[in-house]
Automatic annotation (TrEMBL):
One record GO biological process: tetrahydrofolate interconversion
Family: Belongs to the 5-formyltetrahydrofolate cyclo-ligase family.
Metal-binding recorded as keyword: yes
Binding-site residues for substrate, renumbered to this chain: 50, 55
UniProt cross-references to InterPro entries, sorted A to Z: FTHF_cligase (IPR002698), FTHF_cligase-like_sf (IPR024185), NagB/RpiA_transferase-like (IPR037171)
The EC number(s) this enzyme carries: 6.3.3.2
Pfam families attached to this UniProt entry: 5-FTHF_cyc-lig (PF01812)
GO MF annotations, alphabetized: 5-formyltetrahydrofolate cyclo-ligase activity; ATP binding; metal ion binding
Name recorded for this polypeptide: 5-formyltetrahydrofolate cyclo-ligase
Broad EC category: ligase
Cofactor(s) recorded in Swiss-Prot or TrEMBL: Mg(2+)
Amino acid sequence: MRKKELRIKYKDLRNGLTPEILEEQSLALANQLIQLHVWDKTYYHLYLTIEEQKEVNTEFILQILAGKDKEIIVSKCDFSTLAMTHYLLTDNTKFRKNKYNIPEPVDGLEVPTAKIEVVFVPLLAYDVKGNRVGYGKGFYDVFLKQCAPNTLKIGLSFFEPERYIEDIQATDIPLDFVITPNKIYSFSANN
């Protein structure tokens, strides 16, 4: 399938999930994540859940990161440039939802992209090679290109991979891992 078709398919699949299933599956996914050997890093970029899109609830991952005393980075999007500004999450960080219902930090201590070692990546679909389909705006495509080559890219999904995404571009950056409630998928030869 092509990205456009996959977006429709996986938005429909997510819409079929009840609030109870979303919570249960998000917790199971976080428990899978604990098994992954990525805890020797310091700076972890975490997206904040768009509840209206029925995304994986990243609150559980946030709790794991805080419990492991990691530096948590959250971002703010500039829709005119597709740039993301990254901020250190602190007890004083205040959030506001933007026009797309994305919770964003109002301000804070800015963190350079070069410091980020692990990125949790939102997605709608992915394939068995680690290629992802997002919402189509391109924020994460731009962001991931700016990251250091050894930055770990971890997708979060309620669903299993597609066999093949037809319209992958040479500029698309594949994921290293995808965590689901039932399994960890590894795509990088280094993992």
